[in-house]
Amino acid sequence: MVKVLVTGASGFIGNQVVNNLLSQKHQVIATSRDENKVRLKTWYNKVKYIPFDISNFDSNLNLYEYFNRPDVLIHLAWDGLPNFLDIVHIEKNLFTHYQFLKNYIQNGGKHITAIGTCLEYGKNEGCLSEDKVPEPDCAYAIAKDSLRRFIEELQKNQFFVFHWIRLFYMYGEGQYSKAILSQLETAVQKGDSVFNMSGGEQLRDYLSIEKVAQNIVAIALQKKIVGIINCSSGQPISVRRLVEDYISKNNYSIKLNFGFYPYPNYEPLAFWGNNQKLNNIINE
């Protein structure tokens, strides 16, 4: 049994990560800002919950001791999403999360898994491997890539295991309302006859949230493969195909209005993740 601290435990990813850890009989310490939200989770009485606001904490606090000396930290917390362009990611989130992780590490934390983003690859297209030089092109990606670099600097003077997981695209229950499948489901439930979307020709890399959580836990609980690791399927699918498959699976009759929205200017048209590292971990 491993004692695992999960930050952002009440979120879309955190909820599933906690469930996965509990299914493997690990001891979970869960933290987030709002305990009232967490009380609604099915796992609330199965974990040790410690409320904590990363955006505002006493720097003199020993976080490793405060969270009962976990064996592993899975750091999922992050404010300001899904607005990837908001400068708050650079001006505030980057530094508060760096101070949080630095405090935790310098007080004894030796096994860290933190979450990055495929947007760190910038406008690069095609199959993207972890050794690709990052070229972040939006505030969120710049902040995440910078945080990774900051933590790597700490490794030069102090030993700790460090995984940086670059997430690609996800779908599933609890996803934020602006995600395309969430918007589609809302349109269907409202009785809309037409769903407006982009041209849908973007090639993306999607995984279910349950699979993402499974991958995060598998990565976090091993020490053999460290550093940057893509959490991806390795199989690109067009956004149009994703939406059409969802409609077909659920027997919906809503029509699609392609080309209504422009493509996001911070993403390339076609990219997906090389998942060789991930497969090596899973198949170990």
TrEMBL record:
Transmembrane segments: none annotated. SUPFAM superfamilies: NAD(P)-binding Rossmann-fold domains. InterPro entries: Epimerase_deHydtase, NAD(P)-bd_dom_sf. Gene3D superfamilies: NAD(P)-binding Rossmann-like Domain (3.40.50.720). Residues 4-222 form the NAD-dependent epimerase/dehydratase domain. It comes from the Bacteria. It holds the Pfam family Epimerase. Belongs to the NAD(P)-dependent epimerase/dehydratase family. PANTHER family: DTDP-D-GLUCOSE 4,6-DEHYDRATASE-RELATED. This is NAD(P)-dependent oxidoreductase. It comes from Runella rosea.
